[in-house]
Design brief:
Mean pLDDT: 94
CATH architecture of the largest domain: Alpha-Beta Horseshoe
Largest sheet: 6 strands, parallel
Radius of gyration: 22 Å
Strand content: 15-25%
Structural class: alpha/beta
Low-confidence stretches: none
Bound molecules: S-adenosyl-L-homocysteine, iron/sulfur cluster, FE3-S4 cluster
Strand order of the largest sheet: 2-1-3-4-5-6
Shape: globular
CATH topology of the largest domain: pyruvate-formate lyase- activating enzyme
Number of strands: 21
CATH class of the largest domain: Alpha Beta
Length: 429
């Protein structure tokens, strides 16, 4: 039996996909090659914004055509949209066989084998055991390591706490076991959680876990995602500063730079508190690069509020920023706020955000010229005669004559830039 596994949404879904792929492979299923027709289709869905839901909608209907020529095809929807909409999905997509919630990841293969049809979701209240053995991962050099699931923050715009449940941290032993079982080709790990800073298991805090992992695996490059600005503590910053193998980059979503909007979003920090955190980061780690998420057109956002967000991009010098137009989600508090901003204004503000980010990213990219950089070489560039890799800030760097070093972390001197891309030369050891 052959399966097609497609992943939408964030890294949490990507990490869940690794587990589903592994369980299916261990049960004798194989992933389809290009142009093959699958026996089973599994989609890992996302419902964080309407745009994500619509993309998935289009894909579902186009894949449904396969069922016309192959009626025995099994169609499975997993993940956040499945958890949110449950059996309503069978009415909307009559070709679906199985809808599985976010906390039943470890049951997907089993339910498929048992030929289960219908809905399979339960309340998320337990710490689900995650497979820590050898996983069939999609990337040979980089591995996502979930350290916690769920979120307790209830930012008023966000559906994640409803579809992923409350925060549950994974025990240290399981995390260590998973890292120990990584293939030898692995060079980088990403410690994952909706809010990694609130990791806590048997009194072990995130900064302690990070310190422990970076020291124990000093041959691996380490990243972590996502940090909530209210919870990022000094100890974590110190651990980042004192361990060479932790990337000097942090993703710190600001969401808005207006205190009034931040309060309505329930973010629990002000602009100046965010600013102080960044100052602290820069003091301990002068080479730190920052990326962020910003939402345009949150309910009641005025032009003045919006300009604060827009100006924050150059103020902080973000090396990259994910920008979104506010999307009302059913069941969230903000979707009931009365001052919803018209679509046209949200769109127009998003456009300005994107332009500003583009300008700043190019500026920050140019600033790298002449600097040394540690690059994980991932493979051949899509064009030209070079290989590409990523620096600590996740910037793409193209380098000549290094084919024999693919899969290694190399030192590079940056020589030039073009848009968001950088070019560099290997610094011989
Ligand atoms: N736990 C992470 C990721 C949450 S989802 C965090 O806290 O950063 C990723 C991003 O999607 C969020 O940071 C936010 O910028 C955006 N987002 C979430 N809900 C949204 C909504 N309803 N409309 C627009 N953007 C949203
Ligand atoms: Fe959503 Fe906020 Fe939790 Fe992030 S911290 S997942 S934005 S509720
Ligand atoms: Fe989407 Fe779920 Fe991630 S809603 S952003 S896939 S946690």
């Amino acid at each position: 039996m052959k399966f097609l596994l497609e992943t939408y949404g964030c890294q949490m879904n990507r990490a869940d996909a690794d587990r589903i792929r592994t369980d299916l492979s261990n049960s004798g299923f194989t992933e389809i090659e290009k142009n093959e027709i699958p026996d089973i289709i599994i989609l890992l869905s996302c419902s964080v914004r309407q745009h994500a839901v619509e993309r998935l909608h289009g894909r579902l209907w186009s894949l449904a055509n396969i069922k016309r020529i192959k009626p025995e095809l099994k169609f499975v929807l997993v993940g956040c949209l499945a958890q949110e909409k449950k059996s309503d999905l069978f009415d909307k997509y009559p070709f679906l066989n199985l809808v599985i919630g976010t906390d039943q990841i470890n049951l997907v293969a089993d339910l498929i084998i048992r030929n289960y049809n219908g809905l399979y979701t339960v309340q998320h209240n337990e710490n689900i055991p995650l497979n820590s053995f050898k996983l069939t991962r999609s990337d040979p050099f980089k591995a996502d390591i979930p350290i916690m699931r769920g979120c307790n923050n209830f930012c008023t715009y966000c559906i994640v706490p409803y579809v992923r449940g409350r925060e549950r941290s994974r025990c240290k032993e399981e995390i260590i076991k998973e890292i120990d079982n990584l293939p030898e080709t692995t060079k980088e790990i990403l410690l994952l959680g909706q809010n990694v800073n609130s990791y806590i298991f048997d009194n072990l805090s995130f900064s302690e876990l990070l310190d422990l992992i970076s020291k124990k695996y000093n041959n691996l490059r380490i990243r972590f995602l996502t940090s909530h600005p209210k919870d990022l503590d000094l100890k974590t910053i110190e651990v980042m500063a004192s361990n060479d193998n932790i990337c000097k980059h942090i993703h710190l979503p600001i969401q808005s730079a207006s205190d009034r909007i931040l309060e309505l979003m329930n973010r629990k920090y002000t602009f100046s508190e965010f600013d102080k955190k960044v100052e602290q980061l820069k003091k301990f780690i002068p080479s730190i690069s920052l990326s962020t998420d910003i939402i345009a057109g949150f309910p009641s956002e005025t032009e003045e509020d919006f300009l604060k967000s827009l100006n924050s991009i150059s103020h902080f010098g973000f090396c990259s920023a994910f920008t979104y137009k506010y999307s009302p989600r059913n069941g969230t508090k903000a979707s009931e706020f009365i001052n919803q901003i018209p679509e046209e204004i949200r769109k127009e503000r998003l456009k300005r955000l994107i332009q500003e980010v583009e300008k700043e990213v190019i500026l920050q990219t140019q600033k790298q010229i002449g600097k040394k950089s540690k690059v994980l070489l991932e493979g051949k560039s899509h064009y030209g005669n070079t290989c590409m890799g990523r620096d600590e800030a996740n910037r793409v760097i193209h380098i000549k004559n290094v084919e024999n070093l693919i899969g290694e972390v190399i030192e590079v001197k940056i020589t030039s830039s073009s848009g968001w891309n950088l070019y560099g030369d290997l610094i011989p050891e």
